[in-house]
C-alpha cells in the first residue's frame, strides 16, 4: 500500500478519446447488464428504490440497469462524450436518469445519495487521489448510505491497466468514514472473450455519526 509500483494514471483527455469515437461496446470494461456482484448484493438487500449515484458511469449500462431496478439514478463521468452516449442509451430504453459531466476529484454535485455505485472508478486514481476520493464520496452519501465499490485486485497478474488494490488498503483508507461491511475477491465479468480481470468487491457503509 504505497505510491511505489503504481501504473501511470490516464489524463482526462484520454478518457474523452475513449468515448468520442467508436462503439462503447468495444471498450474492455463494457458490460451490458448490471454487474453480477452489484446485482446479487442489491437483491440480497431487497433494494428496489432509493437514490443512487453511478460514479464514472462511462457507457451508462450500470445506470440504466439501476433505473430499471427502480432506483432514482444520477450518473456522472469526466467525459462529455461518455455522458452523451450514456444519455442516448437511457433515452432508447425510455429511462429517466440525471446525467452530469463531473470530475469526481473536483466534485460539483450537491445532492446526497442512499447508494453510490463505483464499477472501475476508484482504481483509475493514484494513491493520493484515492485518499481524497474517500472524503469526497463520503460527502455524497447519507449517513448509513452504502458504497458498492468494485476495483482491480492485487491478485491480478497483468501489468498494464488500472491500479491494483489490496484489501488492506480498503480497510485503511475507508475505515474512518465507513464501516467496512465486507471485502471479497471476485472478477470483472466480461462481455467478451478472454481472461476476466481479478477484482475486489467491497461493501462500505457510511458511518452514522
Ligand atoms: C473503467 S471505466 C468504467 C466505466 C463504467 N463504470 C462501467 O463499468 O462501464 C472508468 C470511467 O471513469 C471515468 N473517469 C475517469 N476519471 C474520472 C474523474 N476524475 N471523474 C469522473 N469520471 C472519471 C472514465 O471516463 C471512465 O468512463
Describe the structure.
The protein has 209 residues and is α/β, with parallel strands linked by helices. It has a single domain (28-192), classed as Rossmann fold (3-Layer(aba) Sandwich). It has helices at 12-20, 36-44, 61-69, 80-92, 127-139, 167-174, and strands at 51-55, 72-77, 97-101, 113-119, 141-152, 178-187, 198-206. A seven-stranded mixed beta sheet has the order 3-2-1-4-5-7-6, sandwiched between helices. The longest helix is centred in the middle third of the chain and has 13 residues, at 80-92. The protein is globular and about 40 Å long. The mean pLDDT is 95. It binds S-adenosylmethionine (SAM). S-adenosylmethionine is lined by residues 15, 29, 56-59, 61-62, 77-79, 82, 103-105, 119-121, 124.
* Molecules bound to protein: S-adenosylmethionine
| Most strands sheet | 7 strands, mixed
Estimate what percentage of residues fall within beta strands: 25-35%
CATH architecture: 3-Layer(aba) Sandwich
Q: Order of helices and strands, N to C?
A: HHEHEHEEHEHEE
* Helical stretch tally: 6
CATH topology: Rossmann fold
State the CATH class.
Alpha Beta
Radius of gyration (CA) equals 16 Å
Mean pLDDT: 95
The dominant shape is globular
Tell me the helix content. 25-40%
Number of separate domains: 1
Number of strands: 7
Task: Report low-confidence residues grouped into runs of 5 or more.
Answer: none
Spatial ordering of strands, largest sheet: 3-2-1-4-5-7-6
Task: Determine the N-to-C terminus distance.
Answer: 28 Å
Amino acid at each position: 500500500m504505497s505510491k511505489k509500483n503504481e501504473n501511470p494514471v490516464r489524463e482526462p483527455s484520454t478518457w474523452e478519446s475513449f468515448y468520442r469515437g467508436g462503439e462503447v461496446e468495444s471498450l474492455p470494461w463494457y458490460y451490458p447488464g448490471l454487474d453480477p456482484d452489484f446485482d446479487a448484493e442489491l437483491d440480497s438487500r431487497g433494494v428496489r428504490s432509493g437514490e443512487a449515484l453511478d460514479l464514472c458511469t462511462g457507457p451508462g449500462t450500470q445506470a440504466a440497469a439501476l433505473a430499471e431496478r427502480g432506483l432514482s439514478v444520477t450518473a456522472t463521468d469526466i467525459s462529455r462524450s461518455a455522458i452523451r452516449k450514456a444519455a442516448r442509451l437511457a433515452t432508447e430504453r425510455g429511462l429517466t436518469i440525471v446525467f452530469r459531466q463531473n470530475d469526481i476529484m473536483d466534485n460539483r454535485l450537491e445532492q446526497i445519495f442512499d447508494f453510490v455505485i463505483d464499477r472501475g472508478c476508484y482504481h483509475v486514481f493514484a494513491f493520493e487521489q484515492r485518499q481524497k476520493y474517500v472524503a469526497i464520496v463520503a460527502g455524497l452519501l447519507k449517513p448509513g448510505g452504502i458504497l458498492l465499490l468494485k476495483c482491480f485486485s492485487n491478485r491480478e497478474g497483468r501489468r498494464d491497466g488500472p491500479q491494483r488494490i489490496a484489501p488492506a488498503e480498503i480497510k485503511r483508507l475507508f475505515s474512518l468514514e465507513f464501516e467496512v461491511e465486507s471485502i471479497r475477491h471476485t472478477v470483472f465479468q466480461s462481455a467478451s472473450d478472454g481472461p476476466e480481470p481479478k477484482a475486489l468487491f467491497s461493501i462500505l457503509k457510511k458511518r452514522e455519526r
